[in-house]
Amino acid sequence: MQPTDHDAIRQQVRTAYAAVANTGSSCCATAPAPGGSCCAPTDQSVAELLSRGIGYSVEELAAVPNGANLGLGCGNPQAIAALQTGETVLDLGSGAGFDAFLAARQVGPTGLVIGVDMTPDMISKARANAVKGAFANVEFRLGEIEYLPVADAMVDAIISNCVINLSPDKAQVFHEAFRVLKPGGRLAISDIVLTAELPAEMLAEVALYTGCVAGAAQVADLVAMLAGAGFNTIRIAPKDASREYIQHWAPGRNIENYIASANIEAVKPLEQTP
């Protein structure tokens, strides 16, 4: 695969995550063998174990409907988002609703969480989970994170978990994030970053792209994209300890030598530069 055709990449990602939604499989958490599918079966106990390993508490895992946690994350954006009662939060690539439901607990009944996902099967699953868990302050919208179905200056905080690396146009994602944030709003995401240049054969693998590896960007490039979108107070902190679980995404491929999970934070200034 040559990552040049944005629509083709989005369709590959959509297809892979539709399979996750329909089978309960985990792409990012159980990665592909060479030539194989990124979607290897897992169950709820495995998803919970994986989530504990990336920073979620037992209490958080118990607070969401069964089936909301698919074990797809690479960190816990709640830990850096500092969500407050009454805030409006946007979850980019909300999947089955796991992080959105945790955010909903933090913002309370006067707050609102909007989840956006481009996979219809995920939206259906998340909406069913919202009903199952009686989450009245969460809504899920079908859309691409490069073209958000959200009004200008509507949200206080944006969270995301291991999703922006899947976008073929990350700069556009950050421009859209900037557009929908209120002045002073913040971006708090967990994602995969490149720590070394990936070999060409890895970059060409569809399964490694949909498995949260081949689409990762260098920290310096992400900083430039965020600054170009208008953000300031940019902080990107790769986590060396993440290599311990990343190595299991593609056993024997040594991908932990090229990527790491990172906390990515940025703020939309209160005043815009003319």
Shape: globular
Strand content: 15-25%
Structural class: alpha/beta
Mean pLDDT across every amino acid position: 86
The run of helices and strands is HHHHEHEHEEHEHHEHEHE
**CATH fold category name:** Rossmann fold
* CA-atom Rg in angstroms: 17 Å
How many domains, as an integer?
Answer: 1
Q: Figure out the total of helices.
A: 11
For the record, the CATH architecture stands as: 3-Layer(aba) Sandwich
What are the segments in which pLDDT stays under 50 over at least 5 consecutive residues? 26-42
E-strand count: 8
CATH superfamily: Vaccinia Virus protein VP39
Task: Give the class-level CATH name.
Answer: Alpha Beta
| Spatial gap, N to C terminus | 41 Å
Tell me the helix content: 25-40%
Biggest pleated-sheet summary: 8 strands, mixed
Care to give the gist of this entry?
It contains 11 helices and 8 strands. Strands 1, 2, 3, 4, 5, 6, 7 and 8 form an 8-stranded mixed β-sheet that branches.
Draw up the topology in text.
Elements: H1 6-23, H2 44-53, H3 58-62, H4 78-81, E1 88-92, H5 98-107, E2 112-117, H6 120-133, E3 138-142, E4 155-161, H7 170-180, E5 181-194, H8 200-203, H9 206-210, E6 217-218, H10 219-229, E7 232-239, H11 243-246, E8 259-267
Parallel strand pairs: 1-2, 1-4, 2-3, 4-5, 5-6
Antiparallel strand pairs: 5-8, 7-8
Helix pairs in contact: 1-6, 7-10
